[in-house]
Amino acid sequence: MFTKKESVSDELKLARASGKTTVFEAKSGWRFIDFHELWEYRDLFYFLIWRNIKVRYAQSVLGVGWAIIQPVFSMIVFTIVFGKLAKIGSEGVPYAIFSYAALVPWTYFSNALTQSGASLVGASGMISKVYFPRLIIPMSPVLDKLVDFGISLILLVGLMIWFKIAPTIWVLTLPLLILLMMLTAAGLGMWLTALAVQYRDVNYGMKFAVQLLMYASPVVYPASLVPGQYRLLFGINPMAGVIEGFRAALIGTRPMPWDLIAVGSVTALVVAVSGAFYFRRTERIFADVV
Amino acid sequence: MSDIAVRVENVSKRYRIGMKNEMHDSFVGAMVDFVKGPLTNLKRLRKLSSFDQHSDDCDDIIWALRDVSFEVKRGEVVGIIGNNGSGKSTLLKIISRVTEPTKGRGETNGRVGSLLEVGTGFHPELTGRENIYLNGAVLGMKKMEIAHKFDAIVDFSGVEKFIDTPVKRYSSGMYVRLAFAVAAHLEPEILLVDEVLAVGDAAFQKKCLGKMGDVAKDGRTVLFVSHNMGAISRLCDRSLLLHRGGLVKDGPSIEAVSEYLEANTKIKQTFSQLADDSLPFSLMDAEVFSEGKKGNNSFPRHKAITVRMRYKVARKMSSVHVYSNIITADGTVVLGTGDADVDQSKFGPRKPGVYVCQYQIPGNMLNEGDYTVSISIGVPYQRNFQENHGILAFTVMDIEPVEKFVHRRRAGVVWLNIPWDYLNGNPFS
Description:
heterodimer, A: mainly alpha, 12 helices, globular, B: 429 residues, alpha/beta, Rossmann fold, Coagulation Factor XIII, Chain A, domain 1, 3 domains, five-stranded mixed β-sheet, 25% helix
């Protein structure tokens, strides 16, 4: 009834025979991320990221075109509403590129956060049947949205050429800003997705909250509009530093906002570390509750 | 390397069934409650995190498993039996680390795989090829390993032609075959099978059992949860009997199975109800038994099975009969028989009174499996006064010890000893 399988190669045999001991037990207390285990499951991580990317554009006419439609149309609407009608200052560059430079990181952040927050509930089938490090689930959107981010970033380069705007030397800090942006999305994502397993309304409130958060970030306006005494308070939102940093690096409207980035990095770190602990503490009940 | 494949030490698992009410599905609700009653919250939270003896008695707590300990040696095939809710599936979930035990610990030596995860992680938009990789990774295979087994998996599934088609266009049969092919090639050292959860048709279930046999022949370890006592006693030397979360028997399958059957024998071996005098005819009680096997409703295949019933005629009436169906676990009616089938004169008027009647199914006719009996009373093809569905149940077992894994349950609902004749000489001499 079962076809005899071809002989397995020696290395595979070795891999199987290594049969390491796995312990299951009642654990208590706080645990941090088990990076070693995550590394063990890197292939699953890779396939999940790849699945998310592939599925997002399956059976769609525009395919990856959707990656730029959201920021481009937001840019057009913002340019008309905030640039032309409300006449919000754009620090000497065309409002279109001023807002698009902010929309590139913001679109990544809002999409990664929304998807990450909803990810565990969406993966309930897998969670209740198979063991794997649960952290992979909310972390996949944080990574796979980078593809969309990259595509919209290329368009930003196109716009810079079109408007004849040269990047500043601070363009070298871009990787750091991207890292901060990912850390923020990951930290909040871990919190929200773990909460959403128990409280489904987290998912309902999330989209709305993300929209509000956009107005707390300097997407449609420059951070220079914020009164000086509130500037550091404003910077508690890590995306404020990221967005102003993007502008400083790419269109050079202002010097690098190190104060915002410093405050934002502290917030992002606190959120990420606490999120990781909270996630790991609650993950033991995911399969029972989800 | 130790020769213990699975070790479970004092494992308990509790669920809070009251959680839905207590913990609130909505964040707002939880917040309101938090503002309203911090004191009750405090008590509740302390109760949830403390493990004093009294917490056992709480209404909202279920101990799905209580202090279960056992060891399984490498290469053993162990059955896990018990009623619904006895903790079988929870035990498998803990061993596969899907959920953590509340108390206790345990360990597994070697890769754990299960046939209850068939198709987990499949995405309808992805092609067969892509799903093989994704599903393989979900089950814990490395990319290299999947690539190596890819051809064998495709070959086994029989969907080569559609391997680059999104699986949403697959028929459900193709889908299940592909999903099973991936799971079957995981080649775990420890295989967990939960037949209760296994989806799919009878052929697929058979395939699951067949795969189990193969795995066991390879000297790997199998934990097999099933309600099919025939399969348990055939495949497993040893069985664990769980009752309400506790391990009540750990020993040879024959003993565990008979203990289980004895405990369940009162269920549906007999049936009784009050006569319904508003009806002209009504059933009062019924029982199913086999020669020499009173008090137990699992019968050896070669024994005749008797269904006996008592009914009441309240008003004189004619053209009525008592009718009974034997039905398999998947709903197929094996046979239907009425008390006037052979003797049409029984369609004449019946006088009021209480009557006992019975019919017998010959031995060596029903195949191994679970059957239910329904009894109805009425006018043939017109109306039934009373329909009593599934009021009796019995199991037909093949109790002869046959060569394991070679003999499997024959297909079909009937089992007949049919001799074959050769007409042009004998190929065996």
